[in-house]
């Protein structure tokens, strides 16, 4: 009986029009242990596995309603209680009048075929996983006409296909994506029947790799190396074909043809110099590794692969990434360090794909590893240079912004020391009184040693840079006997570099760094030390220069103030004497014009002295404002009155365009009038006789705007940036100015800024006139302030 159950069997049966069993073969009893009587009606459903029962009933019901043949697979319970797959096939029965009366059919043992189909599905999944992991284009077909081809992700990317597109060049539809691509071999366009896959199917032979030029619809052109082979059944029947496409655009002229079948397999899978490996489902065993000349190969299974290939400090990182990939049943991808075949330490980019069985359980991993050591080294070098640039930029900014850069050396050199992975630094500066080197800053030295290192002689230790004013680099110090390095050698220093700090070829100090971790400095590290030393030297020179300039400015200001006061003292007696003499001798005295000349020159000297005093006040910040509510028009009126004599003397025409409504400001009326007077006076001075001066005053948003334009000599482009500087005058301006020190516009800018405004100058060039624009904020003083008249 059990022999019957374990071999292939066939059971005949019939049903009525409702699908109820009316007859079963006696073999049914041997298979299921169910009698013919109990199998009738719905009784035979009791032998069907519960997971399949509902589906079987639905299929039978649908078939009966449509009076059509059916075929359904299900698990039948055997007499021993075990389930075995069976396939039920039925055809409709009709009576003499062609009326549907039920079904007749057979139940066939299906177990072996189901197992084979599952194994086939597992194999297909492995193949698809391998194809998707491969960086080369892979495609296959089971259509002997090659009208329908399936490709992996790499192939879709190579040919710019979408997943749903028909990629075959032999597709039936003319509009298919695959038919819009052109293929050329040796400059001649190929027909689709000449392509490697089609040729392999048609000729039932392997097509060796062929170089083909590919022209895509997008206009992109690339070169492929494509090979193909037919797939045969065990009996020799042609089942389909497979083709491999490798993008050889960049390596077309250098890549040798692959002849060995093993090398071809590697090219099909990787198409690069990447290592290939296979892992067990839990990564506990390395099953195979093709090292590609940068990692040792493994042809036999290994359970110690992680100790053999991965650095100890990276093993935890790798295992964590593996655990996450296993948990998610997803791609493993990680960049980590590894032990190269030559014993050196390298970097790899490793990527592996899980191979899943029919129940979506991982059976193994298939992956590749790429040597990215050069890229990582380049990235690290780039990061180092970026950090160096940031460090030097920050160091320069701090040193150049500091009034006393010597105080910053300690902080900045500690940063440099950390960046260069050094252990100590010394900064000595020359003591001008003793001519010796005195410690200015240091790092990495204990307090006990500092007092012993405070003073150094030139020619000893770091002082010896004075001999040639060149740097000293001492390397592998612990194995040397140079007396000059004995001091740093006692600190355990292995490499030491000292640079002189130079000022006009004179050594003003030294800056040195030392390390215990290595015996040599790289050229880049020495360059950083040199750059920092140069920055320190520049900053010290700048500080000294600025101090010298500040002292010179202070003395100049004191001189100007003293000169102004000393000049003003004799002017009053001279003026009084001229007035007394003129009064005494009367207008008829022959020398009376000389008395008038003396008076005019004294007045001119008084103005010059007042200008010098204003300069002194500006330089010392002694200008004070007495603010009150004032109309811009009132200040403008006072300014025009003070400038009228000069305007009349040069016969200028003044055109006013002033707002009728008062433009209220909160400022110093005297200084506001001085601002307007200086600008108008400047226009009158530097405009040839008979010129025109336009004066405008208006509101613009929350500002009051005063414009003064003239038809005068204009301002040159090189003079424009300095027009508001003290004592700024060009040669042409001096000739027309009738005296003056070039102070007026500088005073204008200072007074405008004190009022919270700004002034600007415009000119189209020499001889084209000029325009000055003053912008002041509108303001209101408390209501108790008494406003001035706004009429001009």
Give me some keywords for this one.
single chain; 792 residues; alpha+beta; six-stranded antiparallel sheet; 20 helices; 30 strands; disordered N terminus
Could you please describe the fold and organization of this structure?
With about 800 residues, the protein is of the alpha+beta class. The protein contains 20 helices and 30 strands. The strands form six sheets. It has a seven-stranded antiparallel sheet with strand order 7-6-12-11-10-8-9. A six-stranded antiparallel sheet has the order 20-19-18-23-22-21. Strands 2-1-5-4-3 form a five-stranded antiparallel sheet, sandwiched between helices. The longest helix has about 60 residues, at about 525-585. It is elongated and about 165 Å long. Residues about 1-5, about 255-260 and about 780-790 have low confidence and may be disordered.
